[in-house]
Each structure stands twice: as structure tokens, then as C-alpha cells.
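Reply to dn_fold:

You asked what the input looked like. This is it:
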Amino acid sequence: MGSGTFAVEPEPTGPPWREWSEIGEDEALARGVYAPVRSLSYGPPDAVAVAPGDVRGTVLIPERCDGYCMGLDGRNGPNLACAQCGEPVATRVDDCGLWQTTWLDPRSVRSVPDDEPSPPVIGWDELAEQDECARTPPIDPPGGWNPVWEAAAGAALPHLLVGASGGRLTVPEGLLTDAFRTALDTLLPSGPPPKSLALAGPGLHAADADIVLVPRHPQTGRVWAAPPGPHPVPLAAEVWTWLASDQNRTPAPMPIRVPDGVRRDDPLPLLPPVRFRPDWDIFVRTLARLPEVRRPWLRRIYDQVTERPYADPF
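and this is what came back:
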């Protein structure tokens, strides 16, 4: 989470957890889960995620500071207590491989209005025109794929599979190819004539495409309303805006042709040494909550991916 921002998780989070064998299919369906999962949380709903640096007046609870590596994973529930009264109030997560977040326990905290005005909601046209600082680049400064892109692709990929209806899906060249083509080609079986994928949203129209990736608003969570026709698939706004700006770039002609045998003295940006991989955990959790996963061909994909989490394309 960026400093000064928050998000609310409507689903239950944290312990206690119940294994799939204890839950049963009917109870899982009532929770909006349509395929077997390892376990489900029966903790409180509506936990609030904030940036760890935005939390003040708390202390760690030593006996709840477990983690798999060199950080905290929150397995035992709230691990932060109020510094004044000692009441557990939040769960900090910062173990390696996990998003650094502090989850405020809805049973112990409440919102208090302040005198600061609410930030204005960005319009769709403003979203498309934001400068580069407001977008998330696909490459991290150390040279690897940005985990925000991996997470966004993991969330969008199940919806793309549903839209493809069991057939192939053609992906346009560019960053969309890096993010989605390998995964779609690996997971989708051969079938009807391929459908087409394109980017659509404010300032971008793809009337001829069968499926369009459209932005999800970064403040409200609403999905941009695509015109009737193509099947819309939501994509995180910070990734969508970068893809949209990439599509709008027009190569500028060089004033002078570089002679044969002469190398450029300004190196081109390096690509990551590994292939892009969507986030496996987000993919599985998203697909399990789509009713379409009960279709035999999509259930086969779900079972294949859950049984082999480190196989292609993950």
C-alpha cells in the first residue's frame, strides 16, 4: 500500500483456518468458493490494509512474531498491540515473498473523521493522461519483473480464460505479449478459431476485439464500462496506464542512419533475464472464486495448476 492509502478486504482474513475436508462443498459455495482450496479463513471480515509505516502507537507481541524466513507472516493472528493498553490491534506482514502490509483488526479499531478534505476522485480521462510517475513500470530497478505486474496478471488471467471459452486467444505484440501470451498458450487447449485480445479504456477503443483489458479505478475499485460487444476483463489501473502509454508511443525516425558495423554508445534498456510469470497464488485464489471454474475444461486447468504450482507458466 502507498503511504496515506488503505484498502478493505470484505472476505474473512487470518486465523482461525479450516481445512477443505472440514468445510464441505455446500459451505464453500455459500462463501463464494467454487473449487477445492487448501483452507479458508474464519477470521473477521473487513480488515483494513495500510502501509506499515503509517501505523503509530503500536508494539510487537513477541510470542506472535513467527515467520517462515526472516520476517513476520501473521500466522498466529494480530502481532501488534496498542502501546498504551496492550490490546492486539493489527497484524504486520513482512516476511520475504509476501507483500509488506499491516492489517488493522476490525474488532479492535474504528475510523475517526478528521478535518482533512477527502482527496478528489480522479476521472477516467485524467487517469489515462497521468504522467509517468503515476504509472508502475514493468521492470523493477534491480532488473527483474515488477511484482505489481505479476500480481495484476495473476488476477486478470482467470477472467481471460473464462472469456476465451476454451479456445485459443491471440495477443497483440508488445508488453501484452510478455505478460499474457505464454500463460494463455500454455493453459488454453486447442479449440475453436482463436479470439482476439486488445487493450481498451479511456482514449483507447478496440471494437474489433473479442476480449478487452480495461482499467479498474485505483480509488473506487470500479471497472471502466466497456462498450457493448467485447468481453471486458479488469486490470489494475497502474499497469493498464503503462500499457496504454506504450500503445500510444510512435517510433520517431532517426535523423541519421547508423552505419553498418557501428554500435550504439547508449545501451538499450536491459530486459529481465527470466520469463514473466503471473502470480500463482493470486491466480488460484481468483479462479477458485469464479463460478465458471465448474466447467470441465476450466476445472482441469485449475486442478493442473494447483497440483503443480511451479510448472509453466508459473
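The first strand starts at residue 6 and ends at 9.
Hope that clears it up.
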